[in-house]
Amino acid sequence: MSKIERAEVFVASPGRNFVTLRLTTSDGVTGLGDATLNGRELAVASYLRDHVVPLLVDRDPANIEDIWQYLYRGAYWRRGPVTMTAVAAVDTALWDIKGKVAGLPVYQLLGGRSRDGVLVYSHASGTDTASLLDDVARFRDLGYKAIRAQAAVPDAGASYGVRKGTVYEPAAHSLPDEQPWSTEAYLDFAPTYLEAVRDRFGFGFHLLHDVHHRLTPIEAARFGKRVEDCRLFWMEDPTPAENQEAFRLIRQHTTTPVAVGETLSSIWDVQHLITEQLIDYVRTTVVHAGGITHLRRIFDLAALYQVRTGSHGATDLSPVTLAAAVHVDTAVPNFGIQEYMPHVAETMEVFRSEVRFEDGMLHAGDEPGLGVEYDEKAAERFPYEPRYLPVARRLDGSVHDW
Q1: Which GO molecular function, any one, fits this protein according to its record (predicted)?
Q2: For residues 266 and 263, what is the distance between their CA atoms, to the nearest angstrom?
């Protein structure tokens, strides 16, 4: 019987900070898992090295469900982003191994194809409305059928989702960048640039927008009602999701679809949002929600209530997570859309992936497992660099949700 012989944790910064778990079996089969928690990477690396790796050696890698339950229930201290990201890394690596042993891509192990490709959206942004419109045009020329639009709020300092240069990298400083925020200015301005996008380009593509947790429920309701004529695919994270009941108020005032879940890590965190149909898209992702095993449970629950998937997919998730997401997206019946930001060249020097973009969609490829390899030697050229996500402050100096 094959056993897990070795478990290694790699921390490197090829463009962004990534934590990668590699499992190796006694038969020489390897599996990769992403363990990245942006801004708190070393907490997960320590959780794996100090507490999980010793538990894995000599276990049967085929027993994915049993290992998941062992790591989740056996810890006693359940849930939370650090625990669930560590469990996810192990789970994803085990699915990679199982696919390689079976000689099949992971999506085949999940039931096979439900679609030919995975619809994705990417991120257009601008320092003002004019530059945003130019960026939307660029993404349309690249073949995207769905585009998220964000623009800098005038006279309000930094704004979420706006690139500086060619790459959007919010975690760019050794200490948190403290950014000013004005809700009033945002509510006045954001609808105008979304309307400008529709005025210029029409309705022949999907338009998305990320509020990024910054509004109260009634403010979010006001915003959603104001932009109804823009026919957004969704407004993302309109208010912090810890208070699931808050989304009932938003529902009462607007028909703009709501997407939530990238910061949530378990089925219990989204249970009422789904079962009471307070959202339209659930954005939990492989790496932060316990791996493929647990994410599939979330998506199966969502399917019962006509809630579709829309997994988080920023570049602080490694190509391992992107590949795992695309395999899951390919198989589940209630897929909605997948976030996609192409990784920079340095990242792809370390991770070799079979995932490819074509005609507005991602394709998983048919290599056994996840179709991703990790170049340990290349990773050594990119040592870890402490980086934090920003902190938002209202104009009076008080801390706000970033």
Answers
A1: mannonate dehydratase activity
A2: 10
